[in-house]
Amino acid sequence: MGTAAQAVAYERKGDIAVLKAQNPPVNALGQAVRQGLIEGIAKAEDEGAKAVLIYGDGTTYFAGADIREFGKPPLEPYLPDVCNRIEASPLIVVSAMHGTALGGGLEIALSTHYRIAVPKARMGLPEVHLGLIPGAAGTQRLPRLIGVEKALDIMTTGRQIGAEEALSLGVIDRVTEGTPEEIGLAYAEELIASNAPRRPVSEMPAPEPIDWDATYEAVLKRGRGQISPAMCVRAVQGACELPFDEGVANERRIFRELMETDQRQGMIHAFFAERAVGKLPELKGVEPRPLAAIAVIGGGTMGSGIATSALMAGLSVTMLEMSPEAAAKAKDRIAGNLSGALKRGKIDQAGFDRLTEQALTLTTSYDDLGQADLVIEAVYEEMEVKKEVFRKLDAVAMPGAVLATNTSYLDVNEIAAVTARPEDVLGLHFFSPAHVMKLLEIVVADRTAPEVLATGFALGKRMGKVSVRAGVCDGFIGNRILSHYRSAADHMILDGASPYQIDAALEAFGFAMGPYAVADLAGLDIGWAVRKRRRAEGLDPRARDSTYADRLCEAGHFGQKTGKGYYDYAAGAKARVPNPEVEPLIEADRAAQGITPRAFTDDEIVRRYMAAMVNEAARVVGEGIARRPLDVDVTLLYGYGFPRYRGGPLKWADMEGLPGLLEDIRGYARQDDYFWQPAPLLEKLVAEGKTFEDLNKEAAG
C-alpha cells in the first residue's frame, strides 16, 4: 500500500486543502490511508487552510475496511480515532462521494461536516453481514443525523442506499453531477464564502427514543437468531441515553464482544468462501469461449427462470418449446418474471420491451438453435428424455457451442456420451426460481474441456450467480447432501418425532424453512419421483424406507401447489398449519414396521440432522466431488437456506468440534450401522487433529 503520503495525496487549492485517497482498487481504509487522513488534516490546520476536501481517486470513495487486515491485530491509528480527529478539526471538512461509501467509508463521511455526492453514489453500513455492528461511531452519528428508525433500517439490513435516497433521508446534503473533485471544491468554496459553520454530528442533539426492547426482539426474530442486527439496536439505544463519548464506548464494547462470537467467525468464513469459490487452479490462464447468444430448451418454471436471468445479464435468448401454445406460455412466464424486475426498478419500460420483443426469440424447431454459443436444456428430469434432447442438439448446434444440462441428479457423463462432442458438455444446475436464487452448481463431466468449464463460470459471473464446481455423482454436491440429511429427518419421524417438531427445531437453529415446509414448497412429487427411481434401481436391504410421503402423493397432495402437503395451505402459503391427514399415515407406517415411537428433544433433532449433513459432506469432499470444504459451505448457504451466520455446515462442524461429532455418529451407528457409517475423511481429520478449515488452507496453497 505504500506510505501515508502515497495513500492520501495532499494538495492546496486556494483556501482548500484537498486530501485524495489513492489506494486502488477501492480505496480501502488500510493503515496507510488512516494515517494519511490524520496527517493531511494536521497539515491543513498548520498551513492555515479554511476547509478540507476529502474524496477518493479512481472509481470510488472509501468502499470500507481493508479485507487484507481481517483477522490480524489492529494497527494504529484506529478508525474511530481517525473519525474523531476529522470531526474535531476547527476547519470545515467536506466529503465528496462517488462509487460506494460502505461501512468505515460512510463512517468517515459522517465524521466530516458536510457531504456531497454524485447521483450514482451508493452508501451503507453493511457490518451486520460480517456478524458485527458499525464500530467507528456509525451507530452514534447516523441516528443523530436522520433519527433512530431510519438509521436502524439501514444498519440492521446492511442494505445500500442510492444518493437520492440518502439526500431525502438527510444522510448527505447535496447531489450534483460532475467529478468528485469538481463538485467538492465548488461546495467547499461556497461554504467558505457564506461563512458556513462547522457542523459536527456528535454535537447534534440525541435522537428521540423508541420502544427498545420490542424493537430488539423484532429484529432478532427477523434475523432468525442472528445477533448482530439486534445489537445495533442496543448500540443506538446508547446514542439516545448516553453522552456521545459514553455512547461511543458502549458501541466499542458491543463491537468487541461480537468480534469474539461464533457468529462473527461464521460470517467472516462465508464472506471469504464466497470470494474463493470461483478461484480454481485448473482455470488459471484458461479463456472462456465467446458468450453472446444462448438457447434454452424447455420453458417451464426452471427454463423460464434461466432465460430471465440470461436476458437480465444482457444475453440474447432463443427459447425452444414443443408447441406454439407451450412457447406462448413460456413467453408469458418470462414476461411475468421481467415485470418483477420492472417493478423493482432493475429495468425500465423500454428495457422490458427490448428484452421481451427483441432479445427473446421463441421457436418450436431445433434448427433455430444453430447460432447459440451455449445451449441449456431444462426439460423433464428423466434420463431418456434428456438423451433424446442431446442427440438432437448434437446434430444442429454449431461447432464449439457449449451444451449444458440443468439436471439436478442425473449422470452428466451418460448424457454427454450420446453426443459426438462430450468435451463440449457440462452440467449447469440452477436452483429454482433461477432468476432469483444465486447458486449455480457447475458440474464437470469426465471429458469436459477446461475452456467449457471456464465458460460455465463466465456465464455464472455474468448472471450474478455464486458458482460452485461440482463433480459427477447422484445429486452432485447439494442434492446429494440434502438427500442424506433429509433421510436422517425421515428416520427421526419413523422413530417418534413429528415433521412439525423437526421444522420448528431447525427454523430455531436458523434455517429459513424446515425440511418438510421446503418439500411442500418444491412439490412433494419431486421427492416421490426420486424415491421411485431409487427403488427401481434397487435399494440396499439395510436401508430404512418409509411410505407415509408416498401415501400423501397418491392422495394428490403435492404441497403448496395443490393446497395440501405436510401442511394445509387453505388460508394461504404463509398461514401453514399441520395437515391432520399426515400423522395417521406416519403412525400406520410405524405400526407396519413394528416401531415403538419415542420422544426427541429439539437439540437432539438438530444434532442428528447436522451430523448427517456433515458426515455426507465429508464424503463429498473426500471423494473430490467438492474440491474443498468451502465449496460445500457455499452450496448449502446459497442453495439450501443454511444460516449464513453459522458459516456453512463444515464451518459449523469445526466450531462445534469434529471429535464430538464423530463420537455422536459412532453412537448413532450402534442402532443403524448402514446409514451412520463415519466418513473416512472425518475419521482422518480427527485422527490427525485437523479441521475442515485446514483443508481449505491447503487448497489455497
TrEMBL record:
Gene Ontology molecular function terms on file: (3S)-3-hydroxyacyl-CoA dehydrogenase (NAD+) activity; enoyl-CoA hydratase activity; isomerase activity; NAD+ binding
Subcellular location(s) of the protein: Peroxisome
Domain 3-hydroxyacyl-CoA dehydrogenase NAD binding residue range list: 294-470
Main subcellular location: other
InterPro entries membership: 3-OHacyl-CoA_DH_NAD-bd, 3HC_DH_C, 6-PGluconate_DH-like_C_sf, ClpP/crotonase-like_dom_sf, Enoyl-CoA_hyd/isom_CS, Enoyl-CoA_hydra/iso, NAD(P)-bd_dom_sf
Single biological process term from Gene Ontology: fatty acid beta-oxidation
Taxonomy, superkingdom: Bacteria
Domain 3-hydroxyacyl-CoA dehydrogenase C-terminal: 475-569, 605-690
Keywords of this entry: Fatty acid metabolism, Isomerase, Lipid degradation, Lipid metabolism, Lyase, Multifunctional enzyme, NAD, Oxidoreductase, Peroxisome
Pathway where this protein functions: Lipid metabolism; fatty acid beta-oxidation
Chemical reaction(s) catalysed: a (3S)-3-hydroxyacyl-CoA + NAD(+) = a 3-oxoacyl-CoA + NADH + H(+)
Cited Pfam families: 3HCDH, 3HCDH_N, ECH_1
Family in the record: In the N-terminal section; belongs to the enoyl-CoA hydratase/isomerase family. Belongs to the enoyl-CoA hydratase/isomerase family.
Protein name: 3-hydroxyacyl-CoA dehydrogenase
Species in which this protein is naturally found: Marinibacterium profundimaris
Organismal lineage: Bacteria, Pseudomonadati, Pseudomonadota, Alphaproteobacteria, Rhodobacterales
